[in-house]
Amino acid sequence: MSNQKPAIPKGTRDFGPEEMSKRNYIFNTIKGVFQKHGYAQIETPAMENLDTLLGKYGEEGDKLLFKILNSGDFLNGIDPLKMQASGANATSLLLCEKGLRYDLTVPFARYVVQHRDEIKFPFRRFQIQPVWRADRPQKGRYREFYQCDADIIGSTSLLNEADLISIIDEVFGKLAVRVKIKINNRKILAGIADYIGQPDKIIDITVAIDKLDKIGMDAVMQELQLKGLEVQSIYKLEPLFAITGDNRAKLSQLRRILQNSESGIQGIEETEKLFGYMDTLAIPSETELGISLARGLNYYTGTIIEVKALDAEIGSVCGGGRYDDLTGIFGLKDVSGVGISFGADRIYDVMNNLNLFQAGSKTASKVLFANYGDKEVKYCLPLLSQLWQKDINAELYPDPVKLSKQFSYADSKNIPFMVLVGEDEMKEGFITVKNLFSGEQQKVSSVNEIIEIIGQKN
Fold first, then answer.
1. Helix, strand, coil fractions of the chain, as percent rounded to 5
2. Who contacts 66 (Cβ-Cβ below 8 Å, separation ≥6)?
3. d(CA 10, CA 136)
């Protein structure tokens, strides 16, 4: 038998109890804010029919879909010549009927169409589940990761965008992560394409300029040349991304430049209105108009949102935007929606690196009952049960081993209190509670007194 340890696929991670406690702190914080703002939870399957997913994320996104081979002899009945003649997507559909979801938004659009008779619009939903992408693993980029999504569908009001930005600000405020919220509008990007005389190249333009912060203007211009854009058109882009000033000043300058683009002006007016709502809400987080922000996904049609952590070198920790007809691809036309997605794995990495997790979030149990033997266990079990009924996390050491081993166990789990009930305690009718952090011991006579001591510590 090989001595080599088993391994997991690259781009995936195991999470032990301490890590899960931290992750649940993130999930519960996000979930609590979602619920406070009136969003209801749903879940969808890990796998979707492949034709539900293909073509929704652009050519690059399709390449990153994990596809599931059909059960049994998946080559049975498949003509090899037909496979050779087919493109990658067509071949996938011959061999695979299902795929792992790439995000939570397209499955949500499918859900809305499938359950439209049960849904009351506008529909506010949130979803916290894993997604999968066949990407090259690197720092902050995983093949399996959790998304925490909130969407409002069935309303075109920009109040929805303002609500989601308020959620972003509140979540990161509670997590103590300093962020910058970057905002743009897909219509402004369409206006830029109009301005440089290349409206038919809008996808190529947005894909390239979305990389501006990463690769710089020269590399963006080179990429656009390779995509077939005229040189004079590319050079007209440069001054657009040199616009300075606060958000209002940038929008004012853009209005002058894009004055002949109906789409561009509409995007500017929507963004001005959104910033007005944000001013009224007094959003504390730093916000910035990001003229180059495009967020690659083809289904965005209006507001685009991206959030960066200010104190960590990592990609975006949250993003989203407006999609005017995503449900239309499934047969339900003219249903506009807007949503955001928190990247829980990146948030976890940021908080871990910055030591932002609260000490209490690492502790599962608050109290450990020592095990002296059968008689003592029978005495302790009703006390343990009463603590559980009071929603106190507590446990009883399962074996009557040396007390030093039980103390070591408590220390390894960062348990703050130990209840000691031996022969003397049972005979005299009291309970010894030991604070394992300070070493202080107290004698009490009831569970309520135990709870009072724990409350003083916390």
1. 45, 20, 35
2. 99, 100, 132, 133, 134, 143
3. 9
Report the chain's C-alpha Rg in angstroms. Answer: 28
Q: What is the pLDDT of residues 123-161, one digit of tens each?
A: 999 999 999 999 888 877 889 999 999 999 999 999 999
How far is C-alpha 200 from the chain's CA centre? 33
Question: Per the omega criterion (within 30 degrees of 0), is the bond before 122 cis?
Answer: yes
At 328, is the pLDDT very low, low, confident or very high (cuts 50, 70, 90)? confident
What CA–CA distances, in Å, run from 148 to 55, 181, 214?
Answer: 23, 17, 25
131 close to 145: Cβ distance less than 8 angstroms: yes
Taking only the tens place, the pLDDT of each residue in 98-115 is 999 999 989 999 999 999
| pLDDT of amino acid 134 | 92
Both tokens of 103, joined, read 């995000």
Instruction: Look at the block and give the residue holding tokens 């969808």.
Output: 44
Query: Which residue carries 């949130």 as its tokens?
Result: 126
Across 14-80, the runs of DSSP E, i.e. the strands, are 40-41, 47-49, 67-69
* pLDDT tens by residue, 272-309: 999 999 999 999 999 999 988 887 656 789 999 999 99
CB 319 within 8 A of CB 340: yes
Q: Using an 8 Å Cβ cutoff, are 258 and 194 in contact? A: yes
pLDDT per position as a tens digit, 361-386:
555 789 999 999 999 999 999 999 99
DSSP codes, 174-201: HHT--EEEEEEEHHHHHHHHHHTT-GGG
pLDDT for the residue 226: 83
Mean pLDDT of 429-438: 95
The residues near 398 (Cβ < 8 Å, ≥ 6 apart) are 371
In the chain, where the domains are located: 187-286, 363-457
Whole-number pLDDT of residue 75: 67
Helix axes 186-195, 202-209, angle to 10 degrees: 110
Bridge-based pairing of strands 337-343 and 318-323 is antiparallel
Distance CA(133)–CA(56), nearest Å, equals 14
Maximum distance among all Cα pairs of the chain, rounded to whole angstroms = 94
Integer Cα distance of 161 and 114 in angstroms? 25
Asked whether 127 and 320 are in contact (CB, 8 A), the reply is no
Would you identify the CATH topology of the domain 363-457?
A: Rossmann fold (3.40.50)
The DSSP H or E segment spanning 226 is helix 212-226
